[in-house]
Amino acid sequence: MKKTLIALAVLGAAAGVAHAQSNVTIYGVVDTGYIKESGRDLRMGENVNNRIGFRGSEDLGNGLKATFELEKRFDLFDGTSGNSNISKLPARANQKADWDGAANLGLAGDWGRVRFGRMNELTTETIRKFDPFYQYGVGGMLQSSQRSARIDNTARYDSPKWSGFSFGASYSLGNENHDGVTGRPGATANDGYALNLSYDNGPFMATANWSRIADSDDSDVWNIGLAYKFGAARVMALYEKTNDEGRKLNAASNGFDQDTWLLGLEWDIGPGQLDASVQYADWDVAGSDADVWKYAIGYTYNLSKRTSAYAQVAYTDYDKDAAATWYTGSSKNEVTSVQIGMTHKF
């Protein structure tokens, strides 16, 4: 009996040591609501992407940790897998990634963090902090053909902060067959690269990025963002330049250029936050130029630390039908969008 008790005590102590050295966090977001846009039927949709994730680390000693992330996206309103980024491989072009969010393994220490696998695209992750709607919902920033929420086959490094400064870099493998895109004979694939420099210390925040997504015909994007907080209010501005050499993500396209400007405001009012933005995009496809203006306002009411209700209204004026079709798939060039819903984070 005494031997059994001693064995159980030893096992319990060992389990306690293992638990102290490693940890796993389960987290997620559930979000749903209604969206109504001009010329379209009322539909259910999300603001913040629905997800469930697992994040963990193990202490390897000497300040070194092994890290991992696994995150699955899904549509709450019908239970199907989320589809912010589908695989670009030809045989899987119409399938959704099983782990549409992060899926990576890495190491972290005082020198920073390096990860391998699928992860957030560096420049998208950093510039969205300068959009008061965080590029979510009907009020979010106008899309670019080269913006990708997450990227595959990637190695990414993020530095620690030095007096508010930090930097990051990523490298992604391309596909030699150019994803089987038709209509572009002789097109070649390219590997992907991204660089970021950020500053965040006190009320002032800034970032600068350059990226070239893999298999984009050497298209590139660069952007800068600035923000300053005055008490309960935070003002921000960003500029983004897209040079598309003729490869829209997951499809062949005509080459185009896009210049996007955004002015935004976040203002803590009562138990929530007011968000507002004004955007302008100069859109040029094959010599056809158009001006796009977008105005958005919204309010998020915090019911608790984890649960909130939100409402957004946006109005977008597409100067030409071709621009409206490119952005929305519809030739309607004046679109009013309304979105209401609820978010819970765990």
How would you summarize the topology of this molecule?
Elements (H helix, E strand, L loop, with lengths): L1 H20 E16 L5 E3 L5 E11 L2 E10 L29 E7 L2 E9 L1 H6 L22 E9 L6 E8 L19 E10 L2 E9 L7 E11 L2 E12 L2 E2 L2 E2 L3 E14 L2 E14 L2 E15 L4 E12 L2 H8 L5 E12 L1
Antiparallel strand pairs: 1-2, 1-3, 1-19, 3-4, 4-5, 5-6, 6-7, 7-8, 8-9, 9-10, 10-11, 11-12, 12-15, 13-14, 15-16, 16-17, 17-18, 18-19
Give short descriptive properties of this protein.
346 residues; mainly beta; Porin; 16-stranded antiparallel barrel; 10% helix; globular
What's the CATH architecture? Beta Barrel
How much helix is in the residues? Answer: under 10%
Shape, principal axes of CA atoms: globular
Radius of gyration: 22 Å
Decide which structural class fits the backbone: mainly beta
Q: What series of H and E elements makes up the topology?
A: HEEEEEEHEEEEEEEEEEEEHE
Write up what this structure looks like.
The chain is 10% helix and 54% strand. It has a single domain (30-345), classed as Beta Barrel (Porin), CATH 2.40.160. With 346 residues, it is mostly beta strands. The two termini are 44 Å apart. The protein has helices spanning 2-21, 122-127, 321-328, and strands spanning 22-37, 43-45, 51-61, 64-73, 103-109, 112-120, 150-158, 165-172, 192-201, 204-212, 220-230, 233-244, 247-248, 251-252, 256-269, 272-285, 288-302, 307-318, 334-345. It is built from three helices and 19 strands.
